[in-house]
Every structure is written in structure tokens, then in C-alpha cells.
Design a protein that fits this description.
- By secondary structure, the chain is α+β, with helices and mostly antiparallel strands.
- It folds into 6 domains: 54 residues, no CATH class; 126 residues, Nucleic acid-binding proteins (OB fold (Dihydrolipoamide Acetyltransferase, E2P), Beta Barrel), CATH 2.40.50.140; 203 residues, Phenylalanyl-tRNA Synthetase, Chain B, domain 3, CATH 3.50.40.10; 68 residues, 2-Layer Sandwich (Phenylalanyl-tRNA Synthetase, Chain B, domain 1), CATH 3.30.56; 123 residues, Bira Bifunctional Protein, Domain 2 (BirA Bifunctional Protein, domain 2), CATH 3.30.930.10; 87 residues, Ferrodoxin-fold anticodon-binding domain (Alpha-Beta Plaits), CATH 3.30.70.
- Helices cover 24% and strands 24% of the residues.
- It has a 7-stranded mixed beta sheet with strand order 27-30-31-35-34-33-32, sandwiched between helices. It has a 5-stranded antiparallel beta sheet with strand order 5-4-3-6-11, with no helix packed on it. A 5-stranded mixed beta sheet has the order 13-16-19-20-21.
- β20 and β21 form a beta hairpin.
- α21 crosses α22.
- The relative contact order is 0.06.
């Protein structure tokens, strides 16, 4: 985000006296530049000019020489004989480990109470046998440089005279200024410069703006091309969207540069206020002009490049070591700047518009430079920057659109500064290779803003607003001919001009009218179903979570068998994280990571669920984009046809105890039937009838699951073959009926012990996963007929029967419901007994029967129902009344 300095802003636009950074923020937000934050000064508290009176160096036991100094700090001095360490001189005692100063030198002193960059608070402290009542500061300690070999000696550091002892050093060094960080939308790239911000401030306040981007302000008139100019060839053979990668290229040559010339303080402060550190004068000047005008520039060591420069696309196998010392393999879509050194052929110098190469960079011995100011295609630069993960300051500006008329002005500004500050000489070699297109012109109806915005704005005001932003207007006809300014590539149609008129008229002047809400619209059925599922599970006590859908191969090894088809995942070409480039094929891929994280944070009992899409790779070929040009409609359709299926899934993980530990009741851990219950609950929320099948492993089935009675409903038991990541004997296959066939929509049960171990989960952790899309498809769209609620009271009967132990409670419950008929409202198993009072191989099951009819049931009716159920159980299972 750009930073706004009041001092720098005031050099381009007239600020009122005593204008605060808060006021500037309010004025800029009126024209769409939102405040991100106000950055406080890097240094607060007493930072003053001091003079070294005495210096007493002593070697310490560790071999280090430490200086004990008495420093005159003016009105902050301790009087003679007073202070933390009394002295005959009015001064303060300070310990210093630097040695680049002498008695009589003026230094920068931070006194107790000061806070330096990084939150470093200064206080009096005893060290090396003395009390240090302050600190003499270096550039690094004040945030003025990345490193420093000694403290600041003002006699050498300042260009002018040193202020009197005790005076404020914060203002002297430019450290007391607050900065405004603003948020720039992608269509306002021109505001990535102080020129652009100053222009917008002038729009907001009416203050006078002096445009530094036109000849006659910061630079003199621009020179014509010369015959001895450094030559450039534009040879882009693979344009994007029909646009050449480069349509303007300016070169200038400056010789006789003093490589040891320092960067002036004012420039260093402005660079630092913008988040850049000072490197060397030549590089600092190119960075400064970029921040000032918005035109990225590059300076080559003239002795390291050979004519001509060539702008072209990369060739297969080419590489470049960029200024960050990373060797990069280039892509045929990358736009390059190359030269032709004798005997070497074409050599890559830079990624155009992104970053220069190390072979031609300016160094400490450079005395002659080739200045480049060019205009590159925004799409080409954006793709290169993202491909190589190089979000450079130059790329940020080019990809948002740079003023194509700014290159020669910026190049001249660099030349002027190199001559003024570095002692250079303008060699007079000028090239401006200009193939830019004419400015866009389109028709505009001056009444269009009033129609779109809903506020009457007269023609004179519309013309004034458009002229302010730089448009040229021919209003001789009923429809105006508007020429948009070169620095506003985002203005491509009349609607954009209306937006500018509304912005400068004032958003606060536009009426706020609530839209009329139509009740005829409705939420799509699939979204409504997902909301119902989430609300139902949340109401049952589960917690909804959200995880990223990206996984690594390690998940597959922990969850899936080698031949599992779910290993066929889609790999992202440009993943968010290099260690997780695959799209998940199951929600458990990422939900188990959430469970592991909860446990690691001390949450040892939880029930979580997630709704999300999974990807099915299948046999679909990988979708590829065209190499250079923007895809056409046919190519986009082809790509979309290759997008794999992405069904919605629902998954949950249950670990630990069902309820918190209590002295009043025994706490039970989650069991696999809890996972089945949660899946059933989700299915019931959308009106689906979920059929459960489990492996017929002795003693593994939960009592509530109807295993042996499933055959009567056409449900086959689940195959006993193990399916990762589930426990082979404690997993249920979840099915729905589609017509006459059953379709598997998911699984629920215990996770395999190895999965629990790999994810550091408690033993016997349970989970479920459902294909939510298939589950919802199984539900008929026809309205369901709901039974009428009876107002008559319930009648209750209990029934306890003795029967063979091999008969499951689920089978008995099915027979109870069948025999009881329509009067039965609810049947529930409430007791299971086996013991000495029963014969071997027998058990007792007790059921609670609740009945309701279309009248108040009499005792003889409930007794008859009870007897009918008992007779049916006796016939089916040989049961007897207990």
C-alpha cells in the first residue's frame, strides 16, 4: 500500500497551514482513496543534539573497549554535582561502544523516555560499571539505514551547520512525521505515485496542483532524438490480446557519475517514508522518480551492456539471474530486455517491467549509466510477475496501467538528478521509440450522469469535473467528444465517466435510497438444503468448521490405500502453498487436520462437521490455457468442459466424550453409532431416507441398526472388504433408494487405528462422510403430505419379553412396529437383561409402547394392542412374556 508524506505531498499541492494527517485522510476518502492506517512517527520522546565533552575508553574483561562519555545536551543536562553520576561539567554520562567520534563532535542523543523504532525504550541503566543516562544513536538504531558501523556524527552527516546543543533532532532528521497508508483499488494505478495522490487531493479540496509529470514543472523541455542514441529494437513476436509487449522505450545516457556521491538526506527520508531503503545514489534516484511520478525506471551500468537493446519474448531454455540473486527459468510468454555482446549472441538483461538482471546492475564502480524508461503491456507484466512470484514495485505499477506519455519526462528527471546530485554529465544521447496508440475518444451524453446517478448535475459541472481529471472535451455537438487522459487507462466508456462525475460531485451528496425487496425470489433448493443440514447438526450440538481444500501427498499415504481411486487428485498449476498443491477428494482429507489442531490446542472432546466441495479427477484431461493470447469463447468453452465434477459433501468427526466430566453421571465416549446417528440426522433434515448397512461381524453392530431385518427391505449387508480410512468391523455403508436400486452415498463409523495414530487422534475416534449432492438428488421435489397432529392423549403400555440371545433388538423392534399397526406412535427399547434369572442363551428386552388414535383410547384397546404384539413376537422369535 502507498504511503503519503505531508512534507512530500506539500511539494506538489498547496496544503493549508497546520493541516494534519487525519484531515488529509478524510479529504482523500472523499475521492475513493481509503485510509488503511495512520503510521505513527518512528521515534517519539526526547531525541536531541548533543556535544561530546569527554571520552574515557576502557578495555573490559571480555576484551571489548567501551567509552564512558560526558555529553552536553543543553537544557537536558544534569547540573554539576547532581544527577545519577555527578560530574563537574553540566552534562549527562553515556556509555558508548562505537569509536568513530572524538571529543567536540556533535552527536544524536536519545534520552530516557524516548522510544526508537521497534519499540526500543530508552532508560537510564547501569552497565560496565557506570550509569548510562541516555544513548548516542546510529543510523540503524533510528531506522535510517539497514546497518551502520558507528554513531551519527552530525558535523559530517549534515550538509549545513549543526543546530545548537539540546535542540530537537527528531525534526532535524525527519523522524517525527506521521504517515498515511492508503488502500488503492486496481483501477487507480496512477495513485501509486505522489503525483497521483496529489492530483486526487486537489480534486477533493480544490487546492492548487502543480503536475510534475509535464515538461516545464520539474523538468525542462524534452530534447529531440539524436543519431548517436543508444539503439533499441522492439521485436515482440507473440503479442497478448493483440497488444505489443512494449510500445514505448526511452533511453538516455549519463556519464561522469561520482559513484561515492551520497544520497541527500531529503531523498533518503522520502524513500524511507515510502517503505524503501537507500541503496546507492543512482538506484535511489530511479526509485525516487518512480515513487514521485509513477513511472518505473531502470539504470544499467553502461559498460556492461552492448547495443542494441532488444525487447522480445523468451526462448525455450533461457535463464536469468535477477537482482535478488535467484536464477529463474524463463517461460516463452515472458517479455525480456536483451542485448548483443560481441561474440556471445543475445544476452538476457531483465524481465521487462518486473526486475533487472544481476549482470548489468549498477555497482560501486559505475560511472556511466544507461537510463531506461519504457511502457509495457499490463497483462504481460502481470502474468510474468505471478509466474515467477516477483511482486516488484515496478510490476505493481505496470500491471495497473502506467501513463504512456510519462516515460520521456521521467527519464529527463533522472538525468537532471544525476547531473545535480552525482556530478554526472548528460551525454546528449536521446532515444524515444514511440509506438503508442492515440488517446481513446468516445461520445458522451452530458445528461447521462443525471440518469444513472439520480441527481441533477448541470452540464457546466459535468464539464468541469471531467476537465479536472484531465479529459479534453469537444462540446460543440449534442453528444460531446471526450478524449480521456493518458494516465487513466481505466476510463474505457461513458459509464466510467459517470462514475468520475459522481465521485467528484461527492458521494455524500448522493441520496441513500433503499432498494425495493422482491418477495417473489427464492433461495435455490440445493442451497436451502445445505442450510437445513447445517442448522440441524448445529442444533444437535455439533460445531461447523471451514478448512482449505488443498492437501499434500502425505494425506493420501495416511488415509488411502495405494490403489484407491481417490488418490487421483487434481494438482493446481499455481497453488497457494507449494507443499499442498492437490485438491481434496474427500472432506476428511482436511477435516482430520482441523481435528488434530483442536486436540493440539487442548480441546480434547468435540464434534465438528464441514460442508464443502470435493474434486473428482477421473479420466478428464488437464485443462490448459493458451500460451500467450487471451482465450477466445471457444477455448473457454473447451476449458470449462474439462472442469471435473465437484459434488458437495458433508463430513463430521467426533472425538473424546459426549459430555463434560461430571460427578453426577458417568460420561461415555463417542461411539460409532453416534456417527451413524449424525448422518441420519443430516439426511432427515432434507427429507431423505438413509438406509444403513454394516459388515456382519459378530458383536460389532450397534443395537439400533437393523441388520438382519434389512433383507426384508431389499438392503444387502455391507461387503466385508476393508475401505480406508475406516475400521473394517465398525463402519456402516450409507445408502439411499433411487427408483428400484440402492446407491451408496457415504460411510460412518470408527476411523482405522492407524489413521488415528497418524493424525494424533484419540483411539476409536468416529467420523462420517456423505455425498450431499447425491443425498439431495434422492429427495423428490413433490410436496410431502404431513400427517395431521392428533389432539387426543397418549396411552402407554410396557412390554418385557424373553427370547433367544442371538436375536437382535433391531429385529424385534421392526416386528413390534409391524404388529402394533397405525395406533403405535412410538416404540422404544428401554432395558436389556441377561442373568441368573434367565436360562442360558436367553435375554430379556423391555419396550415402551406409546399409542394414540382419533379418539381417547380405552384400556381394552391398549391391552388388545399389547397382546397382539406379544403374539407376533412369540410366533416370529418364540418370545414369552417376562
Amino acid at each position: 500500500m502507498p504511503y503519503v508524506s505531508l512534507e512530500w505531498l506539500n511539494s506538489m499541492v498547496s496544503l493549508k497551514e497546520n493541516t494534519t494527517i487525519e484531515e488529509v485522510a478524510k479529504d482523500l476518502v472523499k475521492v475513493g482513496l481509503e485510509e488503511e492506517q495512520i503510521v505513527p512517527p518512528p521515534v517519539t520522546g526526547p531525541l536531541v543534539v548533543g556535544k561530546v565533552l569527554t571520552r574515557d575508553p576502557k578495555e573490559q574483561s571480555n576484551g571489548k573497549v567501551i567509552n564512558y562519555c560526558r555529553v552536553d545536551v543543553g537544557q537536558y543536562n544534569d547540573e554539576p554535582g547532581t544527577g545519577k553520576e555527578p560530574s563537574e561539567l553540566p552534562s549527562r554520562g553515556i556509555i558508548c561502544g562505537a569509536h568513530n567520534f572524538e571529543v567536540g563532535d556533535h552527536v544524536v542523543v536519545s534520552l530516557p523516555g524516548a522510544v526508537l523504532p521497534g519499540g526500543f525504550e530508552i532508560a537510564a541503566r547501569k552497565t560496565y560499571g557506570h550509569i548510562s543516562d541516555g544513548m548516542m544513536c546510529s543510523e540503524a538504531e533510528l531506522g535510517l539505514a539497514a546497518s551502520a558501523e558507528g554513531i551519527i556524527v552530525l558535523d559530517k552527516y549534515l550538509d549545513g551547520p549543526v543546530p545548537e546543543v539540546g535542540s530537537d533532532a527528531v525534526a532535524l532528521l525527519g523522524l517525527g512525521e506521521e504517515l498515511l497508508e492508503i488502500n488503492i483499488t486496481p483501477d487507480r494505478g496512477y495513485c501509486f505515485s505522489m503525483r497521483g495522490v496529489a492530483r486526487e487531493y486537489a480534486h477533493s479540496t480544490g487546492a492548487k496542483f502543480v503536475d510534475p509529470g509535464v515538461p516545464g514543472n520539474l523538468v525542462a523541455s524534452l530534447p529531440e532524438n539524436t543519431e548517436d542514441a543508444f539503439p533499441v529494437v522492439l521485436a515482440d513476436q507473440a503479442p497478448i490480446r493483440g497488444n505489443q509487449g512494449c510500445d514505448r522505450f526511452v533511453t538516455r545516457v549519463v556519464t561522469g557519475i561520482d559513484p561515492s556521491a551520497p544520497t541527500p538526506d531529503w531523498m533518503v527520508r522520502r524513500l524511507q517514508a515510502s517503505g524503501m531503503r537507500s541503496l546507492s545514489l543512482t538506484v535511489d534516484i530511479t526509485n525516487y522518480v518512480m515513487l514521485e511520478l509513477g513511472q518505473p525506471l531502470h539504470a544499467y551500468d553502461l559498460s556492461a551492456v552492448s547495443a542494441p537493446l532488444v525487447v522480445r519474448r523468451a526462448k525455450a531454455g533461457e535463464k536469468l539471474t535477477t537482482l535478488d540473486e535467484v536464477e529463474r527459468e524463463l517461460n516463452p510468454e515472458d517479455l525480456l530486455i536483451t542485448d548483443s555482446p560481441e561474440g556471445e549472441g543475445s544476452r538476457v538483461l531483465a524481465l521487462a517491467g518486473v526486475m533487472g538482471g544481476a549482470s548489468s546492475e549498477v555497482n560501486e564502480n559505475t560511472t556511466a549509466v544507461l537510463v531506461e524508461a519504457a511502457h509495457f503491456d499490463s497483462v504481460s507484466v502481470a502474468r510474468t510477475a505471478r509466474r515467477h512470484k516477483l511482486p516488484s514495485e515496478a510490476a505493481k505499477r505496470f500491471e495497473r496501467g502506467v501513463d504512456p506519455q510519462l516515460a520521456p519526462v521521467a527519464a529527463q528527471r533522472v538525468v537532471d538528478l544525476l547531473v545535480e546530485l552525482a556530478g554526472g554529465t548528460d551525454a546528449g544521447r536521446v532515444l524515444d521509440l514511440n509506438e503508442t496508440k492515440p488517446a481513446m475518444v468516445f461520445e458522451f451524453d452530458p445528461q447521462h450522469p443525471a440518469r444513472l446517478v439520480g441527481v441533477e448535475i448541470d452540464n457546466e459541472s459535468v464539464k468541469r469535473f471531467l476537465t479536472e481529471i484531465g479529459c479534453e472535451i469537444d462540446d460543440s455537438g449534442e453528444l460531446w467528444q471526450v478524449t480521456v487522459p493518458s494516465w487513466r487507462p481505466d476510463l474505457t466508456g461513458p459509464a466510467h465517466l459517470v462514475e468520475e462525475v459522481a465521485r467528484l460531485h461527492g458521494y455524500e451528496e448522493l441520496p441513500s435510497i433503499l432498494p425495493q425487496i422482491s418477495t417473489r425470489g427464492s433461495v435455490p433448493q440445493d442451497l436451502r438444503s445445505r442450510r437445513q443440514v447445517a442448522a440441524t447438526l448445529a442444533a444437535s450440538g455439533m460445531t461447523q468448521v471451514l478448512s482449505y481444500p488443498f492437501v499434500s501427498n502425505s494425506h493420501d499415504r495416511q488415509l488411502l490405500a495405494e490403489d484407491d481411486p481417490r488418490r487421483q487428485a487434481l494438482k493446481l498449476y499455481n497453488p497457494m502453498a507449494d507443499d499442498a498443491p492437490w485438491l481434496r477428494t474427500s472432506l476428511l482429507d482436511t477435516l482430520l487436520d482441523v481435528a488434530r489442531r483442536n486436540l493440539a490446542r487442548g480441546n480434547d472432546s468435540f464434534a465438528i462437521f464441514e460442508q464443502g466441495m470435493v474434486s473428482r479427477a477421473g479420466d478428464i484431461p488437464a485443462a490448459t490455457m493458451p500460451e500467450v493470447q487471451t482465450p477466445n469463447a471457444e477455448q473457454i468453452a473447451t476449458i470449462m468442459s474439462q472442469v471435473p465434477a465437484q459434488p458437495w459433501h458433508l463430513a463430521g468427526v467426533l472425538a473424546g466424550n459426549r459430555a463434560p466430566l461430571s460427578v453426577l453421571e458417568e460420561t461415555k465416549p463417542f461411539a460409532w453409532n453416534d456417527a451413524i446417528n449424525a448422518a441420519n440426522l443430516a439426511a432427515s433434515a432434507v427429507g431423505a431416507n438413509l438406509l444403513v448397512a454394516t459388515p456382519l461381524v459378530a458383536g460389532s453392530e450397534p443395537e439400533h441398526v437393523n441388520l438382519r431385518a434389512m433383507a426384508g427391505q431389499g438392503i444387502e449387508p455391507m461387503p466385508q472388504a476393508w475401505l480406508a480410512p475406516w475400521h473394517p468391523g465398525r463402519v456402516a455403508q450409507l445408502r439411499v433408494r433411487l427408483g428400484k436400486r440402492l446407491t451408496v452415498v457415504g460411510y460412518a463409523g470408527e476411523l482405522h487405528p492407524k489413521v488415528c495414530q497418524n493424525f494424533n487422534l484419540p483411539a476409536r475416534t468416529c467420523a462420517f462422510e456423505l455425498d450431499l449432492s447425491a443425498l439431495c438428488d434422492s429427495v423428490s421435489d413433490q410436496p410431502k403430505q404431513v400427517a395431521t397432529l392428533s389432539t387426543f392423549p397418549l396411552a402407554k403400555e410396557d412390554l418385557a419379553v424373553v427370547l433367544p440371545a442371538a436375536v437382535s433388538a433391531a429385529e424385534v423392534l421392526v416386528e413390534v412396529k409391524k404388529a402394533a399397526g397405525p395406533l403405535l406412535a412410538e416404540a422404544r427399547l428401554f432395558d436389556v437383561y441377561s442373568g441368573k434369572q434367565l436360562s442360558e442363551g436367553e435375554k430379556s428386552l423391555a419396550f415402551s409402547l406409546k399409542m394414540r388414535g382419533d379418539h381417547t383410547l380405552e384400556a381394552k384397546e391398549t391391552t388388545a394392542l399389547r397382546e397382539r404384539v406379544l403374539a407376533a413376537l412369540k410366533k416370529k422369535f418364540g418370545a414369552s412374556l417376562r
